[in-house]
Amino acid sequence: MDKVDYQILEILKSNGRERASEISKEVHLTVSTVIERIRKLEQTGVIKGYTVITDDPQVGNDVTVVIEISLEHPKYEDAFIESINSHPNIISCYYLTGEFDYMLKITCRSSQHLEEIHRWIKDQPGVRKTRTHYVLRTVKNIYTSLPEEDTLQDKRK
Q: Which residues form a coiled coil (predicted)?
């Protein structure tokens, strides 16, 4: 990847539906070259997909929480991960170091709905302990970070 690939990614990060013709103007390449570069970024797995980002309250998810989870033993990890991946309200799952093994981000309709999800999580085999944090306000929520310009130059040396 070179500087132009990162510029293309930065544009697509802001608007995944940006037209190749508009991107080509910003990066000073032909439309066909931009399309070719995007295809290569997709084929190599740098771009994993495109998605819609919704406003949670507008689609009915008024509650956002982060739940830390500790498992009794690593033997439960595979089944736990499979269960977590099957639940539509669990939108992120991170494997951690420290006191807790996993951190889940959950969006749901209400406190009652959260209680149902929390009970479901606690019923998963091997779940030993949970700690729930209500999100009062989202301050920043981006899905990708790209290296800054000076980091790119260091990487190319």
A: none
Q: What is the pTM of this model?
A: 0.81
The structural domains of the chain, with segments of one domain joined by +, span: 3-51, 56-134
CA triplet 100, 56, 89: central angle to 5 degrees? 45
- Reply yes or no on domain 56-134 having CATH 3.30.70.920: yes
User: Would you write out the chain's pLDDT as a tens digit for each of its 157 residues?
Assistant: 899 999 999 999 999 999 999 999 999 999 999 999 999 999 999 999 998 888 899 999 999 999 999 999 999 999 999 999 999 999 999 999 999 999 999 999 999 999 999 999 999 999 999 999 999 998 998 888 888 766 555 554 4
- Residue with tokens 């009652």, as numbered in its chain: 112
Longest dimension (CA), the chain: 56
Tokens at 82, concatenated: 């499979």
3-51: CATH architecture: Orthogonal Bundle (1.10)
